[in-house]
Design a protein that fits this description.
By secondary structure, the chain is α+β, with helices and mostly antiparallel strands. The protein is built from seven helices and eleven strands. The chain has two domains: 105 residues, 4'-phosphopantetheinyl transferase domain (Ribosomal Protein L22, Chain A, Alpha-Beta Complex); 98 residues, 4'-phosphopantetheinyl transferase domain (Ribosomal Protein L22, Chain A), CATH 3.90.470.20. It has a six-stranded mixed beta sheet. β4 and β5 form a beta hairpin. α4 runs parallel beside α6. The chain is globular and about 50 Å long.
């Protein structure tokens, strides 16, 4: 747990996102610096694909923190408390940063920041009851749009809204709460004012949530394809 003396760097927020392939990293990934909680969770995963995703994600995010904030990857400890956003803590330098991990199929997304951050990557799947899920978790106008569409266009519309709310839930530390998610209005924003960035890929959606005014660096995401948004609650 972070002590009251643990320093989170204070300046204009910087967000660094990395999108990478699981298979390309699996042979190099290790468990250096893992906490007992991480090791126990990893030991409880039986599915080989899920194990590889977890291993690469928790290895990659430490390497990213090391590149952005310094220190050795193994010195960064994963810390997460219920209701709070995830952090990485450099126990040698008494330094902290916020961190987020997501994975889908063969890709893992990691993000680190000196302010809150959340990332989510979702495969676009058409086999689920998307209209019902949209009514439960998206704003009413978005749910109506999803219900009016079919097939791939419906799936794209749903997962755009879903990924954004997953990312926001990670940044806040609460996760996706349906009652809260339904009251979130997503609105276009300029890059200077945005607190959300979305990448629409052919078979998946990548969403990043961060504090307004943050400087965002994205590595591995398609250049020129990002869309910027803000969000607000409505009654």
């Amino acid at each position: 747990m972070p002590s009251s003396d643990t320093e989170i760097p204070a300046s204009r927020p910087r967000v660094v996102l990395l999108l990478d392939g699981v298979a390309a990293c699996a042979d190099r990934a290790d468990q250096a610096g893992w906490t007992d909680e991480e090791r126990a969770r990893f030991a409880g995963i039986s599915d080989p694909e899920r194990r590889a995703q977890y291993l690469v994600g928790h290895w990659r995010v430490r390497g990213l923190a090391s590149l952005v904030f310094g220190g050795a990857p193994a010195d960064w400890r994963w810390w997460r408390s219920p209701g709070e956003p995830a952090r990485l803590l450099d126990t040698v330098r008494n330094l902290g940063c916020f961190a987020s991990i997501s994975h889908a199929a063969d890709q893992v997304a990691c993000a680190v920041s000196d302010d809150v951050v959340g990332v989510d990557v979702e495969m676009i799947r058409v086999e689920r009851e998307l209209a019902m899920l949209a009514k439960r978790c998206l704003a009413p106008d978005e749910a109506t749009t999803v219900a009016e569409l079919e097939g791939l266009p419906q799936a794209v519309a749903f997962y755009r809204g879903w990924a954004i709310r997953e990312a926001l839930g990670k940044a806040s530390g609460t996760g996706l709460v349906p009652g809260t998610a339904r009251r979130m209005r997503i609105v276009p924003a300029s890059p200077a004012d945005a607190s959300l960035r979305l990448w629409q890929l052919p078979d998946r959606v990548l969403a990043l949530a961060f504090s307004p005014g943050a400087k965002v660096e994205a590595h591995g995401a398609p250049a020129g394809s990002a869309e910027d948004f803000g969000w607000e609650f409505f009654s």
